[in-house]
Structure formats: structure tokens, C-alpha cells
Amino acid sequence: MGIVKLTMKRYLNNQLVEMVGEKVMVKGWVNSVRKHGSVVFADIRDRTGLLQVVGGKELATLSNEYVVEMTGKVNKRNEKYYNSDMETGKIELELLNLNILSKSRDLPFDIRKPDLDVSLPIMLDYRNASLRNKKVSDIFILQAEIVKAFREYMWANSFTEFQAPTIVATATEGGSQVFPVEYFDHKVYLSQSPQFYKQIMVSIYERVFTLAHAYRAEPSMTTRHLTEYTGMDVEMGFIDSWMDVLLMADDLVKHIFKSVSKNCSKILKEYDIDVPKTTKTTPIVKLSEAQQIIFDRTKRDIRGEPDLDPEGEREICKWAEEEKQSEIVFISHFPTKKRPWYTYQDPENKQETLSFDLIGRGVEWITGGQRIHDYDELVTNIKKMGANPDDFEIPYLQAFKYGMPPEGGFCIGLERITQNIMGLENVRQATLYPRDMERVDVRLSTISQAKNDKKSKKKKLNK
Amino acid sequence: MGIVKLTMKRYLNNQLVEMVGEKVMVKGWVNSVRKHGSVVFADIRDRTGLLQVVGGKELATLSNEYVVEMTGKVNKRNEKYYNSDMETGKIELELLNLNILSKSRDLPFDIRKPDLDVSLPIMLDYRNASLRNKKVSDIFILQAEIVKAFREYMWANSFTEFQAPTIVATATEGGSQVFPVEYFDHKVYLSQSPQFYKQIMVSIYERVFTLAHAYRAEPSMTTRHLTEYTGMDVEMGFIDSWMDVLLMADDLVKHIFKSVSKNCSKILKEYDIDVPKTTKTTPIVKLSEAQQIIFDRTKRDIRGEPDLDPEGEREICKWAEEEKQSEIVFISHFPTKKRPWYTYQDPENKQETLSFDLIGRGVEWITGGQRIHDYDELVTNIKKMGANPDDFEIPYLQAFKYGMPPEGGFCIGLERITQNIMGLENVRQATLYPRDMERVDVRLSTISQAKNDKKSKKKKLNK
Q1: Does the beta carbon of B133 lie under 8 angstroms from any beta carbon of chain A?
Q2: Cis amide leading into B219 (omega within 30)
Q3: Interchain CB contacts (distance < 8 Å): A and B
Q4: A124-436 sits in which CATH class?
Q5: CATH topology of domain B123-437
Q6: pLDDT digit string, tens, across residues B7-50
Q7: B363, B313 in Cβ contact below 8 A?
Q8: Residue A461 and residue B169: Cβ atoms within 8 Å?
Q9: pTM reported for the whole predicted model
Q10: CB–CB contact A404 B67 (8 Å)
């Protein structure tokens, strides 16, 4: 079979800026149609932005979101019609030929306003429509940049990427907030994090990372929690101390800020926000110190508590910004009883762990720390929490049995870092298709209804 | 808190080649210990390879897989002891100081032989031990290179990466091979592929990719199937024809071969294999043509069958290699009745679809094709299979309602492409922690046993 292309080459809208006078083909969505007597203007949207097309009555047959292919001549606009908001604001396409590739029904709401004027539930009910709004779709362009920056940093620092399984035989870290899976004749679970696997991998590759989906059966509807989220997980061996881990997290997050700032400057401007201000040395305060600072500043006494409350997180961020000129701050030395059983204790004070959170703009961004690498110590801790070490032998404890270097790591929630960089109110806005106890694309209340209504039909489909 | 590093800088083994005469610190695992009277040699393994250390009786206290930190002086070896198999074969470290970071129990089998002499089930029962074998761990170094090459290619061709959810409300493509998840009071499912989401994303970003875990409840134990696998998924809009999709897949896979060939040459040599031979124009044959070729060559008649059988796949690969000097070949135009309901039909013959598989070395590597982008046609097809279009409205059909360009895409199974490039017998070898109907890290037969034995203990843990 021969491979012959008879069609014209498609140009992207922003490529036309340099092509005045040429005849070209473009493709995209109809973003708007404006009639001025017998002259009709249409803005055509492609992945590079908008292009103004000018033509006659054939353009008037178009509706918003129609998918079209157009040939035309690239003209310079009259100077008084320059539009500085558009990359293609000095040119327009004079329509020669129009081909409708696909039509559109009416949209459920106006997607052309810069800010969508609908509630979050409606935005999610009509996810495809809301994503056609530029500000909404830009969220995930910026998210893709975060992921890219993450990977590039890891590769540059000789970390090996690996794939962690998400179906697991036991609840990862204990706790009841797991989703059971019907697995042939067995009950297995969705992984709460790739924690065990990334630790194991240190015994093989020293430095590893993964982008892994993780699942938490949290029966709550806060603005910060999802039942399925994406973790950017990092783990590294042969550390001299937990500070190696913290400094790696610090350097990575600054690299992400830098990449986003450089490559998504227009999106940040559109959201009227910037990446967090940082300083060469990010402030690090022990939890107990942070609580003292909060007490000194506000007289609110949360000293002795095992964590910062949301108000405390906001206050310590205010302190870091005012006193240290940094919008991010590390809180360290969380109490042993509040951190998972594999967390490394401070040899100088066994009540505290060599662990940290990075917080910024009033919320947590990263959590990490050094882990116990001694087999016997892990076995002791598992027994202490009333569990059976045999249940952790495969695959976890094996790795420690055969020689594990001192190690630690951290996790950055992808949706949360997107939310926090962009200043979004709800983590669901930073999630393409957020899952929570009320929604799995459809609202779950609807699904139960539907299931009862059409049980027989469903059965057919599943055959 | 101050950040003071009192420890010496760690060097990697392969960095010492250029450091003869210097005093350095290295860290790693004890790979072997050899006593020659009062002189003792130990090979230390780190992520860059082996290093010979020479010392006295303190080295004799070490056992295999101990994790150590050593300072010593880098010496040139006597020429007659050069070892050309080691990157550090012309040097050795004269031990000055030894620090044991972590001890090891005895390994379940010898991991130092180039080829592990144990069955696959034992390899997986002791996954951490088997991964400490160089040839085994190299599989996942090569796999990481595949993933890296995939992403770099996608980025370079302006594809946007996105995160597809894996918890879904309905079985993706119909069919019963899905895992149900107990989701609060509802039953939801693990996604069989990110198919729907990547298609939807085309209506927003035109060109998208994702690396997504996918789940198939296949109750079979073949050498090619996993219940959880990783798909490298690609989808692109504004195609002129299905050939755009095929050519993108072809170019991507050649890019992956090139990257692996360049960056993993030592691993390929170790496995005594090379990436598949390709030609500028990869052969493309219709399924019916392929069946005719097979009949002509072997007199085995599978003409009219809806697919190639394994023997047919091997034969057509032989043909492609012998007649077209290509170890990969595209099979196209699979019958409409055997492809999913969203597959685009050939306008010239509605019994066939504009779909393709890439096969090589006798097995399938990639599957893809053009999709239906017309809303009404999709609705018709959903009804035809006896399902209710309402169940597909959110999130899938919405995207087509509001204008979808002509589009198509493909998926490359990460474990399979790793297996096929490296010539591994079983896809489980190319999977860090393979899941199948008999194993989720532990053998499931054991888990049921354990569950019956310790029901009360389990309950405690899950609280």
C-alpha cells in the first residue's frame, strides 16, 4: 500500500504570523462568530490560540465549537484593528474554502468568558464543556509542565524511574481507609501509596522516582482531598542524614517553580499569580519551634500538639514570609507517635522523627523524611502496632533482610502542587476528573438510581 | 538550624577511574569477598558497577550484600591483573577505613551468576533477591529508558501529558473482564484502559499522551498477560486519515529503538540481542492480505478469520524479515465485528476498520487506529451492542456532542515492548511486581490460607 498525502499541510494558528501573503490551511474549533452586515468574522481556536477569519455568508452558517478546516490567504490587518491580546492580533485569514469536520450541540453554559460563571459541581458534570474554557484548560497545561520539570530534574540527578503496582495484597501502611478490590476469588486492595515499592527499589537502584496513582477511601468532602490522586514519589539511598532528603526536595521544588515560571508565564499572568517566592536557604523549623513561634506571635497555644492545625500552617507561612522572605517553609521533627511506623527516629530524642513537611501559602505541599533501614527495628515496630511481620515479609521486609542503605524520600501530590502554585480554591479544580465519595465522573447518587432502574440492562452490558 | 556536612563526599565507583592516587570514600553493597592468605579482596557494587577493594582481615568480616562505606586510596592495578569486564578494571581501592551500614541475611539463591538458576515463581517469591542480580535489574533500567524515550518523543511533537483516572463508574469498553471496587456504598471498577479519557482530551489539547496503569481481570495464566499493566497511550486529532496515526506510531517506535540502542547498548550486549531491524518504510499489509501471504507460504489456511493466530503472527513476521528486511510489520483493516464499537470503519468497505496492530518478532507490540468522531454514529453503535447511551454520556459522549475533530491513537504496552525488545520469554520478567490471577506479590493461595489462620489478627490491623 502506498502512502500518498493528497491534502494540504495544516498550519497552526500562531505559525501564520510569519506567513503574510501565503495561502494556507488551518484547522480548529469555532470560538465565536460575529456578523457585520455581509462581512462575517469567526475566531478559530487551535492548540496554539485564536485566529481571526474573515469571510462571507458561509461563515454565518457556523456555530460555536464546530470543528472546521479552512483554506485562506494570510493578510495583515489594518493597524487600527490590531488586537494585542492575541498572538495573531496583527493578521487575519481571508477565507477561501470552508470544510466542516464536525458539528456541535449547544453548550450548557458560556465558555468564552475568561472566568466560568458556574459552580464546581456543574463544571464537573459538564467537564468537557468546562475544559473548553481557556483558563480551565490552562490548568492542565501547567500541570503537564510540573510533571515534565519533575522528570527532567530526576533524570538529571541519576534517579531511575520505575512502575509501582497499585493492586496490593494488604493495606499499605495499616489503617482502614483502603478500597477493597474483588480480585477473582480474593480480596485485595488499592494501594494508598507506592511507599513500600519505592523503598524496596532503593536496595536495587539507589535513587528512584515514580509518578503513581494512589487511593484513599477518605469519607470526607474537603477542598484538599481526593480518593484517587497522583503522587510524584522520590526515594534515595546512601544518605548521610535526613537533611540530604530535605535538600533534594527543596532543590526539586525550586526547579519546578523555575520551569513553571519560565514556560508558563502567560498562564501565571492569566491567573494573576506567581510561583512562591523562595530564598537560597529555605527556612527549616522544628514542629515544637513552629508552635512556639505561633504562640509568640498570636498567643494561640498549640504547643505540645502532634501537628500544626490549618490556622497554624497559615500563621507559620506568614512568619516565614515576613521574617525569612520565603513563601515556603519546612516543618521538621514530627512526633514519633504521629508518623508511620517506618519513620526514622531522632537518635537524640526518640520521641521525634527525622521527618518533614514543606508548607507554603498556608498548606502542605510535600511530606518526607528518613526511613528505618534496619530489618530488626522494622519487625519490632510492626509487632508494636499489633500486626504480624509475616504479612510484610513479601515484598517489603525482604529488601531490608538482604541489606538496605540508610535512605529516605518524599512525595509531592501533583494535584495539590498545581492547586497551590495557581492559587486554586479546591484541589478538584486541579484534577481533570476528580474522584471523591460523591463523584466518579457521574454523581454517585445518580448512578445508584440508574442501577436500580435498569438492573437488567446493566447485566446485559456486563456480559 | 545550620546545615553542616561533616562527612566526606561519596564518589561513585566509576568516577574513581580518573582519580588514581587520591583518597576517597565509596559506598555500596558487598558483591563478593575473596581471601588470599592475609590479603582479602572484596568487590563493592554501586549503581555504576563494581569496584575491587583490597585490604586485610577486616574485609574478611564482610558477607555478601552487606552495605558498607569505605575510605581508601585509589591505586592503579598491576597490568597483569587488569580486568576488562569491569569499567574499573584497571584500578582498585586500598582500604583505609571500613564502616558497615547494614548487614544482610543469607540470600535464598546465588545472585552472582550472570543467569539466575531459579524458576520464575521462585524469582518472584524472592523478588528483592532476584533484582539484585545484574541481568535482572538491567531489565528495568532498559524499561526506564523506553519510558524516557517515549516521553521525549511526545514532548518534541507537542503532545500534552495528562493523568487519566483509573477508578471508573462503568466498564470502559463493555466486557466482563473488569475488577469491581468497593467504593463507599457503591460498586465501581478499575479502568481497562485510558481510552475514553485520551479521546476526550483530543477535544481539548489536540494531541495527548499518558502513561497509565490499566487492569484486566483475565482469568488466564499465559506468558503474555498481566492483570495490571502499564500502557503508553497516545491520541491525536485533526488527522487526515488513519495513516497519520500509523505513521506516528511507526516513528515513535523507531525513536524508542534508537534511544535504547544508543543508551542501553551494554544491556543489549549482555542479553545478546539487538533492537528489531527496521526499514525506512515499515511494511503495512491488510489482515486479509497477510492471511493470503501465510497461505501462499505455508498452505495453512486462516483466510477469513477475524485475526491472526500466534502461528500466523510468527509467519507474517518471518515474511516481513525475509521479503522486506523489517523485523516489524503493520497489520491493518481488522474486521469491524472484532474491533471495539468506537473504531472507524473503512468508508470503502464497512466490514473493515481503519485499525492496525504492529507486530514484531512474532507478537503484537502496538494496537491502534482511527476512531469514530461523530456523536450520532457512536450513539448508534452503543445501542447496537445493547447498551444505553445515557451510561456513556458522562464523561465520554459529551466530548463528541460539543465538536470533536477526526482523530485516532494507539497504545504500547510497556511491559510487552520491554519483553519483546529484550527477547524475554515471559512478560512477568519485564514487570517489577507482576500481578496475575495467582499472585499479588504473595501467592494468593498462601494469602487465603493466612486469612483463614489469622482472621482475628487481620481485623486488628485493618482497624
Answers
A1: no
A2: no
A3: 322
A4: alpha beta
A5: BirA Bifunctional Protein; domain 2 (3.30.930)
A6: 689 999 999 999 999 999 999 999 999 999 999 999 999 999 99
A7: yes
A8: no
A9: 0.95
A10: yes
